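Subject: for your reference before the review

Hello V.,

The reviewers asked for a structural picture of the protein, and I figured it would be easier to keep everything in one thread rather than splitting it across files. Below is the amino acid sequence we used in the manuscript, unchanged from the supplementary table.
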Amino acid sequence: MKITVPGVRHIPTRTAAVAALALAGLLAAAAPAATAAPVTSQRPVRSAPAPALEASALAAPDIPLANVKAHLTQLSSIAAANGGNRAHGRAGYLASVNYVKGKLDAAGFTTTVQQFTSSGATGYNLIADWPGGDPNQVLMSGAHLDSVTSGAGMNDNGSGSSAVLETALAVSRAQLQPTKHLRFAWWGAEELGLIGSKYYVNNLPSAERSKVSGYLNFDMIGSPNAGYFVYDDDPTIEQTFKDYYAGLGISTEIETEGDGRSDHAPFKNVGIPVGGLFSGADYIKTAAQAQKWGGTSGQAFDRCYHSSCDSLTNINDTALDRNSDAVAYAVWTLSAGSTIPSGEVFETLTDVSIPDNGAAVTSSLTVSGRTGNAPTALKVGVDIKHTWRGDLVVDLVAPDGTAYRLKNSSSGDSADNVIATYTVNASSEVANGAWKLRVQDVGAQDTGYIDSWRLTF
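And here is what came back from the structure prediction:
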């Protein structure tokens, strides 16, 4: 028997159906959870039992910044030993390919080195396939590995190359078994006009092209005066990245520097859905962007763009860390296919006042009718009305008292309200029981209340 809890609603949702609308089933798992249906009664209604999540539906791992920077250090050393760069046709580029290939081979990938000729020199693309997944649904992620001749190219594009490499290695560590087939790529001669990626796409038979369900591109994701830009291309891929950053409470902007500037363009030109991230190049950061993201207005996002100073000191660790995690989030989410089952939503609509600069308050909801533990990707939807969100510390508290930090306070975050969905690995927690949202205002002069919050299983 179910007990009706005042102020709590429990509604079945259908996430996969929402995602399927985006692109005829393309990358269906990327769609955000559907909005709960209007309440007609406060009596909880159970959905049909959901099958167990496949391995591909596991929450994405946190990508260690130290690992990504270790790859950058190796690429920097390679450049230093080979005339100061890793450009097409130079020894530093081939050494970079060999470094990445060695890591992937040891991790169990099937690697292929594709040769092409440009400007009288031999170029190389490195392709790495992870065993398994549907060969008729291939999710690709890539970055260009070459630098310009004037420098080592640590941000452009050691940053993207290193993040994609570490994400691939994380796939191996997790022994991920996604619904879709995963393929990773490192392109040559991008700086000469996207030569390597054009060669790959142009030499991919049409039957193979049709199997590529999406291509994710990562070119410059550690800019020292960083912005957070998302490609405005395939809506499902775009929304996946936006969802990730919304979970961090970070606003994004659409990347506007031009489709022809990086390696997603050849894929887009033949009808393959594309998307990606970018932290900015030689454009100038505005005052509004500096207020939103930090950094310095009136300066380029990367003052060392295509210069000799694009070295290890030309990296914003925070941006590199966030964007690397976003790479993994997108790979895990978009490779899950369309087999993620419908979920259940438990939501409370009871308002709870948050005292100004006072003690923490909690809002409770009871989960019942579940079996086993909570999922590895428990969705926590939060709607907190507050006049200075930077004052707030927010935790999810499991029935056994374990707290999961959702949001820290931030003195520079002056926006209103916390309206976001966070993902928590709660697989060690029994699903049934009283869950709590705990909120504390740690600053003075601003007020607010918990409007509603929900758990999606």
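For the response letter, the relevant points are probably these. The chain is about 25% helix and 25% strand. The longest helix spans residues 154-174.

Happy to draft the paragraph if you're swamped.

O.
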